[in-house]
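thought: user wants a sequence for this fold. calling inverse folding tool.
action: design(structure=
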């Protein structure tokens, strides 16, 4: 195996790890939604430090 081919192979594998998948986007959306619901509930309950 040549160095160029090895470099390309490793680069392709690393690039695949850094791209967000559909499940990553769903997780991010659910996390942000939960945070917004929590802050809205805190404001609705008129907490001192929401």
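)
observation: tool returned 50 residues.
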């Amino acid at each position: 195996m040549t160095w160029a081919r090895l470099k390309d192979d490793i680069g392709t594998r690393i690039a695949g790890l850094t791209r967000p998948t559909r499940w990553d986007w769903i997780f991010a959306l659910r996390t942000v939604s939960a945070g917004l619901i929590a802050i809205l509930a805190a404001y609705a309950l008129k907490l001192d430090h929401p």
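thought: summarizing for user.
answer: Here is the designed sequence. The first helix runs from residue 3 to 18.
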